[in-house]
Amino acid sequence: MKYVDEFRSETLARDLAATIAREADPGRSYAIMEFCGGHTHAIFRYGVQDLMPGNVSFVHGPGCPVCVLPIPRLDNAIEIAERHKAILLTYGDMMRVPASKRRSLLKAKAGGADVRMVYSVADALKVARANPERQVVFFAIGFETTTPPTAVALLTAEREGLANFSVFCNHVLTPSAMQQILDVPGQSIAIDAFLGPSHVSSVIGSAPYERFARDFHKPVVIAGFEPLDVMYSALMAIRQLNEGRAEVENQYTRVVTREGNLKAQAMVAEVFELRDSFEWRGLGAVPGSALRLRERFRAFDAETRFALTPSTGTDVKGCECPAILRGQKKPLDCKLFGTVCTPDNPVGSCMVSSEGACAAYWSYRRHQAGEHMPAEDEAFGEEAVA
Amino acid sequence: MTDATPRPMARRFPVRLDIARGKVEMTHGGGGRAGAQLVEEIFFRHFGNAELAKAADQAQLSIAGGRIAVSTDSHVVSPLFFPGGDIGTLAVNGTVNDVAMAGAQPLWLTAGFILEEGFPLADLDRIAASMARAAAEAGVEIVTGDTKVVDRGKADGVFITTSGIGVIPEGVSLGAARIQAGDAIIVSGSMGDHGMAILSRRESIDFDSPVESDCAPLNGLVGVMLAVAPNLHALRDPTRGGLAAVLNELAHDSGTGMLIDEQAIPVSETVHAACELLGLDPVNIANEGKLVAFCPAAEADRLVAAMRTHPRGRDAAVIGHVTPGQAGLVRMRTRFGGERVVDWLNGEQLPRIC
């Protein structure tokens, strides 16, 4: 398929792999954090790690919107659907993410709550128009890529006076997450370079990462989501490290500019403002890391419209999602991985989305996990198949 | 002598069903005259065959001896009509194919209908006509059936359960247990057409060039295959869960591993493009007119060549082989040159596709 196959060429991949093998210094190792779940997914789905020399490794970052949403927010979403009897609209992956007491939106739906999957926020508006007598809430999650569409929806709802529509806003910001990963006082960071977000950067541009390169002396290469993008970006990062440079470089020039999409930025600024602080699964409370609706849109804010109970839900004991999201542990370091936690029966959020590191490991790499994996019968036990 | 001419019997149902404008009513399921009329004027009219015409409580069928294959399948697809077929074609082909995967020649079907009050008779008529056409193509007769009506809101238009009976030819024995290391893995054509056709008609997604469902009977193709490769080890139709689910099931059941080559798996350009757009993988998407075959490697080329002579196997291809060890694990050499596991689909990609 045109404009897709070109970025997945086996011949080019082999050439690129040979170049990386030639240029990577055998005297050192390269730990490259790919920020986005989209990168993680590409690395696993296409087997990119197989083509890398042994001293080049990928560390999986927190850029999976489903993975970083903390349990209390999910509990609130369930509450909106169950207690407040609203139609709750959400992207598909959110349905299975475990909330407190191993509940989930999927289980709430089975229990009678009106939870529906949508492919875009535009569909949420359609549902709101079609059900004027019901409260319709869009469960907004995601980084800067999904924020502009939510802004458009809110502007539309305001224009149309769509009084039964509201947004439960959980939009988060990439640069603050990167800051949180790098800025750990007293701890050395085991990450040599970053592959920067691709689609997020199409909105915010590459400029916001410049301070990380400068202040923390870490190369950042904005990388596309195709496997050749990822490999070439890794090569660019390796070259920077070899040459002692730490700059923001843009591999994804076919989409990303330094300034980003100014129109989208203006729209987001019109609708949203910074929260003082927001809780991330894995990263904890991160100052200035998320958005909420501005005063002008308060009428469409589900957090004001519904009285929500503060939840104290926490991750299941033993679940290593937090450390995995910070890049400090690998999925195989988690005792729950593949035993009680599988994609069919996830305990932690990283096992849910195809962009989550644990789900990617389970789905694509478990043939290399060796004895760590549970016995066949255990893995395909009754519960998993049900 | 006029009295000697028998008077034509009064029509059993003096007023015909208004198929164009009528709707299913609760009385159609009440066991009375209305139900009998519905069955006669829609189902008998389309399915007409001697056995069904007896309108008995059961069909009585003769077989020459040997082994029979029996299968049953319920169909709840939404939407009921989709590009390339409808719930009727699906209900016939789905069961015909399940029977055919035993290497059997499907002969008879039963059909149970659960109708929702208010369902347009015109749609029911159209579905029955599709079933009749599909049955004729597959060479099977619908010999007995049942109709129930439920209150509006208690079903989604129509649900159809079909059971199929077929006769297994002497010497044919197919099953997961016969799969062994070294076997070639063959698919009969492009993957993902049916699931994508359904998806394209779901609300909120519309493709410019709709994908057509591949819904079709496979017994003809199976006949061709058995003629050239009587030593076929196993057949399976990759419906819900797609190729990935079938390979994982069979790898698990046969205690073998499997290695497939992504490059070799036939996928249409449109399905490929739609998968890119929606973030799906063609190996997880349902088919309704494709099969996966396992045979000794030495017979693979001959088998594929024969399959390609049949309209339902024109794009048949060897996509991989069965490996010793790593029992239950399906691996894929990616188009990109790496390797990965091919897993069952996690969770539910799309409910009610068949």
From TrEMBL, chain A:
The keyword Iron applies. It comes from the Bacteria. One of its GO terms (biological process) is protein maturation. GO terms for molecular function: 4 iron, 4 sulfur cluster binding; carbon monoxide binding; iron ion binding. Keywords: Iron, Metal-binding. Gene3D superfamilies: 6.10.20.100, HypD, alpha/beta domain 2. The keyword Amino-acid biosynthesis does not apply. Belongs to the HypD family. PANTHER family: HYDROGENASE MATURATION FACTOR HYPD, HYDROGENASE PROTEIN ASSEMBLY PROTEIN HYPD. This is Hydrogenase maturation factor.
